Structure formats: structure tokens, C-alpha cells
From TrEMBL:
The keyword Iron-sulfur applies. GO terms for molecular function: iron ion binding; iron-sulfur cluster binding. Residues 25-57, 58-87 form the 4Fe-4S ferredoxin-type domain. Gene3D superfamilies: 3.30.70.20. This is Ferredoxin like protein. Pfam families: Fer4. InterPro entries: 4Fe4S_Fe-S-bd (IPR017896), Fd_FixX (IPR012206). It comes from the Bacteria.
């Protein structure tokens, strides 16, 4: 198998219920905490899918769409801002794992 860059690998991820518009997100982030009391904003650099970003005004934003369900942010956030629940197979989105 050809060695792919991380961005190329992420582009191959497919999701259950991909075409559904009403998807219940499996991660909800209280960005008020991110943008007020969080001293390190570590999820903006540990998320492999770049779901947490920081803008030019140092404001943290979160978007769940590219999440690969690695679980890193669930452990990395020590500020109580991340509510992480495995997606329901019917109403959640959820990564379709092909290789285990
Ligand atoms: S570590 Fe937690 S509180 Fe800080 S930016 Fe990340 S999600 Fe927000
Ligand atoms: S579970 Fe992983 S990929 Fe998804 S938002 Fe958290 S760190 Fe990013």
C-alpha cells in the first residue's frame, strides 16, 4: 500500500449517515470556556483532524464534521469544555472503520 500523507488519509475517511442533514453531534464543546478561562487551548494542536482551530484573534472554534473519533480531545481537555458521547449508529454520524 502506498504511504499517504495524513491529510490524504483523512480524506479517505467515510461516515455512516453521511448524507443526513439532521445529525446529532457526538461532541459538544463549550467554547465559552475555551475563550475565557482555558490557559493552554491544547486541543487546537492535538486534534489530528483539525476540528479545533484558533483564529487571528486567538478565539477557539470547533467543528465536528471532520472528526475521526480518536478520542484525544476527550482526554486532552482538562477544563470541562468537551462533552463526548459515541454517536448513535442510527442518528449519529460515526466513522466507518475499514481496517479494524
Ligand atoms: S483544552 Fe478544552 S477548554 Fe481548552 S481550548 Fe481545548 S476544548 Fe477548549
Ligand atoms: S475525537 Fe479526535 S478527531 Fe475528533 S475532535 Fe476530538 S481530537 Fe479531533
Amino acid at each position: 500500500m502506498k504511504n499517504l500523507k495524513l491529510t490524504e488519509r483523512l480524506g479517505l475517511v467515510s461516515y455512516r449517515n453521511q448524507s443526513k442533514s439532521e445529525i446529532k453531534p457526538h461532541i459538544v464543546v463549550d467554547t465559552d470556556i475555551c475563550n475565557s478561562t482555558c490557559p493552554h487551548k491544547c486541543t487546537t494542536w492535538v486534534c489530528p483532524a483539525n476540528c479545533y482551530t484558533m483564529d487571528e484573534n486567538n478565539q477557539v472554534h470547533f467543528q465536528v464534521e471532520d472528526c475521526i473519533e480518536c478520542g484525544t480531545c476527550m482526554y486532552a481537555c482538562d477544563q470541562g469544555a468537551v462533552d463526548w458521547n459515541y454517536p448513535d449508529p442510527e442518528i449519529g454520524r460515526g466513522v466507518t472503520w475499514n481496517f479494524g
